[in-house]
Amino acid sequence: MASVQKEIIIDADPAAVWAVISDFTDGPVRMAPGFVTDSRLDEPDVRVVTFADGTVLRERLIALDDELRRLVFSVIGGTMQPAHDNASMQVVPHGDGRSRFVWIHDVRPDELTIPMAAGMDHGLNIFKQALESTKHPG
User: Fold this and answer.
1) pLDDT reported for residue 133
2) For 24, which DSSP code?
3) Quick one: pLDDT at residue 20?
4) Pairing with 20, which of 4, 35, 97, 125 sits 20 to 30 Å away (CA)?
5) What is the SS3 assignment for 131?
6) Regions in the chain scoring below 70 on pLDDT
7) Measuring CA to CA, how many Å separate 94 from each of 44, 56, 63, 87?
């Protein structure tokens, strides 16, 4: 099994970052508007996320911990069907009202790390821009 870990510093309060991440239903669209075109609940703990390139993922909620500001989910189907996937997103204070956002995917087969890493990089850049432009409009 291979892992992809991405981190980014966001000039936004951890509570604001967590408000987006912890929104299991609409969080993906709020996190990466334009890159993610739709996110909806299919079952109480399963969301369907649609990306601008046509990729569709079914993701099961595993854990949502407000105290640790940590979300855990698993890709369980869609146009990408890993043999195994476990992902976590966590928001950690980074001083002066900033946040460190850590996103980890453990996935099998290993070859899926390449498209996942590219998607994570792209999504993180959009997320950073979206949150920082909200904090500092104009």
Assistant:
1) 87
2) T
3) 96
4) 4
5) helix
6) 135-138
7) 33, 33, 23, 22
Contacts of 89 by beta carbon, 8 Å cutoff, 6+ apart:
21, 70, 71, 101, 102, 103
Q: How wide is the angle at C-alpha 46 spanned by C-alphas 124 and 113, nearest 5°?
A: 40
What six digits make up the tokens of 127?
A: 């997320």
Q: What pLDDT is recorded for position 135?
A: 59
- Give, in order, the Cα–Cα distances in Å from 70 to each of 34, 48, 105, 111: 24, 20, 13, 26
Instruction: Report the distance separating Cα 74 and Cα 93, nearest Å.
Output: 25
Q: How many helices (H) and strands (E) does the chain have?
A: 3, 7
Q: Please, are residues 47 and 39 in contact by the beta-carbon 8 Å criterion?
A: yes
Residue type (1 letter), 93: P
Q: Say how far residue 51 (Cα) sits from the centre of its chain.
A: 12
Give all strands (DSSP E) within 79-131, no chain letters. 84-93, 99-108
Tens of pLDDT along 73-87? 999 999 988 999 999
Only one residue has tokens 């500092």, namely 136
DSSP reduced 3-state for 26: coil
